[in-house]
Amino acid sequence: MGLDITWAVDWVRRSADVIAEHRVELIRLDRDIGDGDHGENLDRGFTAVVPKLDDLAAGSTPGDVLKLVAMTLISTVGGAAGPLYGTAYLKAAAAAGSESSLDGEAIAKILAAARDGIVSRGKAESGDKTMIDAWTPAVDAAAAAAASGADATAVLAAAADAAEAGAEATEPLIARKGRASYLGERSVGHRDPGAQSTALLLRAAADAASESTGA
Amino acid sequence: MKKIINDPKRVVEESVAGFGRAHADLVRVELEPVHVVRADAPIAGKVGLVSGGGSGHEPLHAGYVGFGMLDAAVPGAVFTSPTPDPILAATKAVDGGAGVLHIVKNYTGDVLNFETAAELAAMDGITVRAVVTDDDVAVKDSLYTAGRRGVAGTVLVEKIAGAAAERGDSLDEVADLAERVNANARSMGLALTACVVPHAGEPSFDLAEDEIEIGIGIHGEPGRERVGLEPADRLVDRLLEPILEDLPFGEGDRVLLFVNGMGGTPQVELYLAYRRADEVLRERGISVERSLVGNYITALEMQGMSITLLKLDDEMIELWDAPVQTAALRWGR
Question: Where is the DhaL domain (chain A) (predicted)?
C-alpha cells in the first residue's frame, strides 16, 4: 500500500511536534560544537509550515506538500540549515513528481534525491560530521529495503533506523564542514546536531507511515 | 539570564524597529521581511552595497548603513544568517542600475543564503557580485574546513568599498577593491566570558573564572585553545603573533590597527590593549597610519576583544579618510 497526501501532511505535523519537543536538545548539541541556534531555527521553520497545510488545494499530492515545506524552510530558517533542508525538500518534491501514491521504490528515490541536493548545496561528504552522515546510511538502507521488495512503510522504517545509527556514529568524527569545522579535533565526542535532526525527521516520516497504513 | 527583552522570538524585530526610529534621518526600516535601507536609496548610477548576517553583532551591519558605507543591511535572527528573501528585497531596494555588491562573512549559512539571493536577483536582471570576507587567522584553512571565518576585517571592507562606491566606481572596481582590502586584513580574537543568546537562555560555552578562550569567532563559538588568564600585554602578544606571521606584516609596512571589543569589555581595557599593540608594531618597524578602537563587531555581551591589522596602500588610506555618515561610524561630514 502506497503513501499518499495524508501521510505527507501527517509527516509535517509530526516533524513540527518532534522538533519542538527536541528543540532544547538540538540547541545543546549545536552549542557544544557550533553556536547553538539549530533547534531554534528548525522550530521556527516547521512551526511556520503547519498553518500553511490548511491552504493546500484539493487534489494536492505528497510532492506539493514537500515543496511547501521546502519554500517555507528556505524563507524562515536561515543559517546553513535553511538552505540545506530547503534544498533537500525541494529535490524530494521534484522526485515525488505528481504521483498521488508513493511505493517503496518511490520513497527510496525521494530520499536519495534529498540527500543529493544537500551534498550539492553544502559540498560535504560522508565522514565530514554533518547531516550527510545520517542521510547517506538512510538512503542506502532505503534502497536496499526497496530492492528486496519492502513496502513504503518498511522502507521508511529502515531509513529511520539507519539515520539514527548514523547520527550516533558522528560522535567520534572530526568536523570538516560548517561552523563545527573551526573546532577541529575538539569536535570529537560531540554528536552532530544536523545529523540528529535528520534522524528525528526521518523517524517522524516512518511513524506517520506506520500510522497511515496501520502497520 | 538577565536581559532587556520582551519575547526572545521578537528581539530582532523590536530592536530593528527601534533602530529605524532612532536614525530616521539616515535609514528606513522594512519589517516584512526585515531589512534596513539607506534613506536616499536607490541612488541612480551608484553601486549598491549590501551586507548582513546574524543579529547580535551590533553595530554591524545596520549601524554602517548611510553615506559612504552600506546601502542596506539584512539582520538575521540572533547569530543566524538571514534567509534569501530579505537579502533579495534589500538588493532590489538599493539597485540604482550600476549593480550591487554583497559583502558576506565566510560562515556556511551566510554564504549559502547570499548565494541563493544573488541567483534570484540575477533572474530579476540585477547584476550582483559577492565578496566573501575571511580575515580570521585563528582558523587553519585547508581543504577540510569551511575556510577562514570573516570577522572584524569586514568593517574595514565595508568602509573602504563604501567610499569607493560613493565616489562613483563601477561594480567591478568596488568589488576588486573589497577583495584587496580583505586580502590585506588579518584578525584574531579572544574571549574572557561567553555570551548568552536570548533564545538559548544560557551561556554559549562554559569557561572557568580563570580561563580564556583564544581564537574565538563572533558567534560565541568556542575557539581553538583554552589557556589561563594572563596580563593584557601577554594577551595582545598572543593575538598579534599569528597575525604578524600570517600575511606576513614586516618592517616598512603601513597599517591600520583595529582593536575591537566583543561587547562586554570596556573602552579602558581596549585602549590599554591598543597601547601594547602599537608598541609591538613600532618595535617591528611597522607604521601605524590609522586606528580604530571600540565595539564595532560584537558578540552580544561577551567580554573579549579582537585585533585586526590591515596593510594599507595610498588608495585605501584616501578611502578610509573619506566622509562617512552612519549611525556607528561618522566623520568628515
Answer: 6-207
Residues in A 74-93 with any Cβ partner in B closer than 8 A: 74-84
The architecture (CATH level 2) of B10-184 comes to 3-Layer(aba) Sandwich (3.40)
CATH architecture of the domain A3-208 equals Alpha Horseshoe (1.25)
The string of pLDDT tens digits covering residues B134-189 is 999 988 766 667 889 999 999 999 999 999 999 999 999 999 999 999 999 999 99
Chain A contacts of B33, Cβ < 8 Å? 75
CA-based nearest distance B29→chain A, Å: 19
Bond before B42 cis per omega within 30 degrees = yes
Classify the C-alpha dihedral A103-A109-A110-A111 as positive or negative: positive
pLDDT in tens, A105-119: 999 999 999 999 999
Q: How far apart are CA B114 and CA B9, in angstroms?
A: 23
Q: Do A176 and B113 touch (CB under 8 A)?
A: no
Q: Are B301 and B265 in contact (CB under 8 A)?
A: no
Nearest-by-CA chain B residue for A24: B200
Q: How far apart are CA B212 and CA A200, in angstroms?
A: 35
Given CATH 3.30.1180.20, say whether it is the number of domain B185-323: yes
ipTM, interface predicted TM-score of the complex: 0.86
